[in-house]
Amino acid sequence: MRGSVFMVIAMAAFAVEDLLFKLAAGHTSTGITLMLFGLGGMLVFMLLTCLRGESLMPAAIFSRPILVRVICEIIARSSFALAITLMPLSTASTILQATPLVVVAGAAMFFGERVSRKRWLAIGVGFIGVLLIVRPGLDSFNMTSLFAVISTIGFAGRDLATRGAPASLSNVQLGIYGFLALIPAGGLIALYQQTPLAYAPEATWLIVGAVILGVIAYNALTIAMRKGEVSVVTPFRYTRVLFALALGVMVLGESLDAMTLLGAAIVVASGIYIVTQGKQRPPVAKVATL
């Protein structure tokens, strides 16, 4: 129960963080917003690391999994930042819920995990839900939705790389370099948009609020995954889409059509089915008797 509560708190904080980031990007350039957000989060996690008496630059941070994690973080964060600033927050957050589907597929391909046929079928159904939201080839197709799709791949790659990270690295140490990756990600956005790096003072408190909520969300997520059973607490990740839908409609005045809502329901249902079903276990070898 405690783990589930902390998971809901984490998802609510992430949703509000996304909202504040979107509002801040309305006052200043997206690239600057992401760089300042990354800098603030990095400084907070550096402080937490020092308070715990841990090294700010341990040798394990230069391992290959961490390099892959940082690259995936840059791809994911820059893509999602563009997604939530160029398209409705509710839609971008809904597409992001496909990340667990990509993680399961990636675990099967890169870690050799055995996935049952039912879970592969659920993954396929979940991606159909994503297609209902994105709708490629139709008049309602929005090119910016591809940024949200790319972000799901990047976040899935980050999660998979985290599994291969050295066990000696703590969560706060990983947090430093996770937020550090946002600084070059913001630079890539600035190059992509080719807009002046303007900054408005109105965005300051929005960015500060996003940093605070980001740290709260990160820590609550860590507590949830450590205190509760993974199969029990993970489905509560999907409460994020409920918070995002509510904030998008009530704060930003966004509206969702029936096709988007249907796609969101399919993605969430598929994800919950996958995370609540145990991995297919290899058959027990029979011992030959003489």
Name a few traits of the molecule.
single chain, 290 residues, mainly alpha, 13 helices, globular, disordered C terminus
Give a summary of the structure in a few sentences:
The protein is mainly α and 290 residues long.
Explain how this protein is built.
The chain contains 13 helices and no strands. The N and C termini lie far apart (51 Å). Helix 5 (99-110) crosses helix 6. Helix content is 71%, strand content 0%. It is globular, with a radius of gyration of 19 Å.
Helix and strand content put the structural class at mainly alpha
CA radius of gyration: 19 Å
- Tell me, briefly, the overall form: globular
What is the ordering of alpha helices and beta strands? HHHHHHHHHHHHH
Name the poorly predicted regions.
Answer: 279-290
Q: What layout of secondary structure does this protein have?
A:
Layout: H1 2-25, H2 30-51, H3 64-86, H4 89-96, H5 99-110, H6 117-134, H7 145-163, H8 171-180, H9 182-193, H10 204-227, H11 230-233, H12 239-250, H13 258-276
Helix pairs in contact: 1-10, 1-12, 2-8, 2-9, 2-10, 3-4, 3-7, 3-9, 4-7, 4-12, 5-6, 5-7, 6-13
